[in-house]
Design brief:
The chain is built from 17 helices and eight strands. With about 450 residues, the protein is mainly α. It has three domains: about 90 residues, Fumarase/aspartase (N-terminal domain) (Fumarase C, Chain B, domain 1, Orthogonal Bundle); about 240 residues, Fumarase/aspartase (Central domain) (Fumarase C, Chain A, domain 2, Up-down Bundle); about 60 residues, Orthogonal Bundle (Ribonucleotide Reductase Protein R1, domain 1), CATH 1.10.40.30. The protein has a two-stranded antiparallel sheet. A two-stranded parallel sheet has the order 3-4.
């Protein structure tokens, strides 16, 4: 076997997905060249018509891809020459593949950021809908995966809404970082033609143009920023996945995942495994790896363009695909899962979860909190030894540990516990209701970008 060494540099098998961005950039460039008198209007029209026809060919699956031409840019340019003749050679006037690929990647990143925001919004809506549906349901809250204090399920779900809201902001910032036109920078030093870069920026929807040609062709910060935002978002989704895996187990039994988001065992016919959640958790590592990959690629590059930058694409494209598909899958899981209300409520009754409320009761009667904490630790140990929950002790049993306990201690309840957390950001029904309304307003009022 004697492989062709030139195949090592070929990127068309993955960068062909940039065809829409490449064609759009070339059409804008051709129009600008004509506007500036660098080529004629007839030449620009022929170029634009040919490029549009190529776009149709690609969409229809009829484009003759040629690996020997290495990348998307040369494939389109060669096909354009076949369609319009020698005038195709004028398209590359005042342009380098260096600023051309930088343009394509920025256009693609802007679009990918928009799609990420749309996916995040749909998942937020699903979480918010379930929170509204079960806004009065009390469940155990956990620390160290041990039952700790009662919270409302809606409060728990809204925690993920807040995480995703921060993700939304990060992708908005990523879009803004990518929203700078590099075209017109040439290979590295600018070009000796009277370009109208602002015209091209307007044609392509960029809000500004690059200030330094050397930086413009070598900058991939916007890709790092997207990869970082995606890694953080996937981390949030992985945390949600872990809870769905736990909650759908027989040991918890808090939710039942819809059959379309589970798979059966190859040997045990009774099982339905939470494979979608597990895959989302697992794919997080891939996205982390792509972030480290682009950082490592960039860390030692001198100015300006180096072929190393060809390695900016495969990992990035995979991150985009992974993030968007994971957001879609999780939106479906949240929207369709069955919430086992009785199981959650029963779980909230166990684990001595009102011990902190009982300590606060003693604080209200003048005992320092640290002392009250010690009293309830003893009372909780006693309750466990008796096979009881601490909030099920009798008044006489409470008074073994402190004479500050009175008959009203017996009124402490799960509902009273959550209602007592009536502070901004707390789990009380009133605060959660406010949070739900605020979250709904956020979603309805926000623009994607």
């Amino acid at each position: 076997m004697n492989p062709d060494p030139s195949s090592y540099t070929v990127s068309i098998h993955y960068d062909r997905r940039l065809y829409r961005q490449d064609i759009a950039g070339s059409i804008a460039h051709a129009r600008m060249l004509a506007k500036q008198g660098i080529i004629t209007s007839d030449e620009a029209e022929a170029l634009c018509d040919g490029l549009a026809a190529i776009g149709v060919e690609i969409e229809m699956g009829e484009f003759p891809w040629r690996p020997d031409l290495e990348d998307i840019h040369m494939n389109i340019e060669a096909r354009l020459k076949e369609k319009v003749g020698p005038v195709a050679g004028k398209l590359h006037t005042a342009r380098s593949r260096n600023d051309q690929v930088a343009l394509d990647m920025r256009l693609y990143t802007k679009e990918a950021s928009q799609k990420a925001i749309e996916g995040i919004t749909k998942l937020q809506e699903a979480l918010l809908n379930r929170a509204e549906e079960h806004k009065a349901l009390v469940m155990p809250g956990y620390t160290h995966l041990q039952r700790a204090q009662p919270v409302l399920l809606a409060h728990h779900l809204l925690a993920y809404f807040e995480m995703l809201q921060r993700d939304r902001v990060r992708f908005q910032q990523c879009h803004a970082t990518a929203d700078v036109l590099p075209l017109g920078s040439g290979a590295l030093a600018g070009v000796p033609y009277p370009l109208d870069r602002e015209f091209v920026a307007k044609e392509l929807g960029f809000s500004s143009i690059s200030a330094n040609s050397m930086d413009a062709v070598s900058d991939r910060d916007f890709l790092v920023q997207y990869q970082s935002a995606a890694a953080i978002c996937m981390m949030h989704l992985s945390r949600l996945a872990e809870e769905l895996v736990l909650w759908s187990s027989q040991e918890f039994g808090f939710v039942t995942l819809d059959a379309q988001y589970t798979t059966g065992s190859s040997i045990m016919p009774q099982k339905r495994n939470p494979d979608f959640a597990e895959l989302g958790r697992g794919k997080t590592g891939r996205v982390y790896g792509h972030l480290m990959g682009i950082l490592t690629t960039l860390k030692g590059l001198p100015l300006t363009y180096n072929r190393d930058l060809q390695e900016d694409k495969e990992g990035f494209f995979d991150t985009v695909d992974t993030l968007l598909s994971t957001l879609e899958a999780f939106t479906g899981m949240i929207a369709t899962m069955t919430i086992m209300t009785q199981r959650m409520e029963a779980a909230a009754q166990k684990g001595n979860m009102l011990a902190t409320d009982l300590a606060d009761y003693l604080v209200g009667r003048g005992m320092p909190f640290r002392e009250a904490h010690g009293v309830l630790r003893q009372a909780s140990d006693y309750a466990r030894s008796q096979g009881k929950e601490v909030h099920h002790l009798s008044l006489e049993e409470y008074q073994r540990f402190s004479d500050l306990f009175d008959a009203d201690v017996l009124k402490i309840s799960l509902q009273g516990s959550v209602e007592a957390r009536d502070v901004p950001g707390g789990t009380s029904p009133r605060r959660v209701e406010e949070a739900i309304k605020g979250a709904r307003i956020q979603l309805e009022a926000c623009d994607d970008i």
